[in-house]
Amino acid sequence: MLSVWIVDAVREGADAAGLAPGVLDAGERQRAAAFHRSADRRCYVAAHVSLRLLLGAYLGQDPAAVRLVREPCPSCGGPHGRPVAEGREVRFSLSHSGDLALIALADTPVGADVERIPALDMVTETASALHPAEVAEPAALPEADRPGGFARVWVRKEACLKGLGTGLARDLSLDYVGTGTGTSARTCTGTSAGGSAGATAVPSGWTLIDITAPEGFAAAAAVQAPAMAVQTSTSAVQEPAASDRSARRSSSAASSPPASTATAPTS
To answer: Could you give the CA distance from residue 244 to residue 54 in angstroms, rounded to a whole number?
Structure first.
């Protein structure tokens, strides 16, 4: 089961700030205090309080007692790989952009990304780093649709790379995820994708899913499983007992229909 939580920092910021002293660890509180912009601090606190509430609920622990550690970096072996909950009973990925955060939890490696849809000039400057087919696809769209097409590619790619644990250390041009839209999860096979010469899907055994995001944002998740049910929820910042009940309901809902639409890329 893949559980995805969308956190609106504007709506939930005050509640998160009230819970933060008893939930965040010393390092998280120090990082929050270091932000110069109050909006950035608010989103960081809302995201990390939500993450700890959810991990605590899934693990049956006090959220403040959940210990986060780093896996070895898959590129160099250094102690700065992706963060994981000690014991690895549940895997997570956290992303935030603007006033929105996205949290994905699963029992296998997972990656998630949310981004504000960029301006057209940013698309033009950045698209050249992508797979050749992904450079061509947004360029072929009507000008008004290019930022959205580029954002779909970018969040899918970041979700995959975060799931792999490499992040942007992996060459962005190596994997093809495409700009298309679809209605069901795409299972990544590691074979030719999109009919483009030389295009390869992300590694075999991974499923890539578009997540419905608020207007002006794009979001995606990638999970190391051939297929997986998806539950999308909001309002992760709650009193800990309520969060525990909600998270446990999500965890037991693998046979239930998704709570909201989750679509996947087609080429």
So the answer is: 7
What digits encode the pLDDT tens for the residues 159-183?
A: 988 888 766 656 666 677 777 754 3
Can you tell me the distance from the alpha carbon of 188 to that of 36, in angstroms, rounded to the nearest whole number? 40
Q: Dihedrals φ, ψ of 184, to 5°? A: -145, 160
Residue 255 confidence (pLDDT) above 80 = no
Give 138's Cβ-side CA count (13 Å radius). Answer: 30
Question: What is residue 42's three-state secondary structure?
Answer: helix
How far apart are alpha carbons 193 and 266 in whole angstroms? 9
Alpha-carbon dihedral 156, 158, 163, 168, rounded to 10 degrees? 150
Output 247-253 pairs: Cβ under 8 A, ≥24 positions apart.
247/3, 247/53, 247/54, 247/57, 247/58, 248/57, 248/58, 250/1, 250/3, 251/1, 251/3, 251/58, 253/1, 253/229
Note if the pTM is more than 0.85: no
CB neighbourhood size of 41 (10 A): 18
SS3 25: coil
Q: What is the spatial distance between Cα 123 and Cα 128, in angstroms, rounded to a whole number?
A: 9
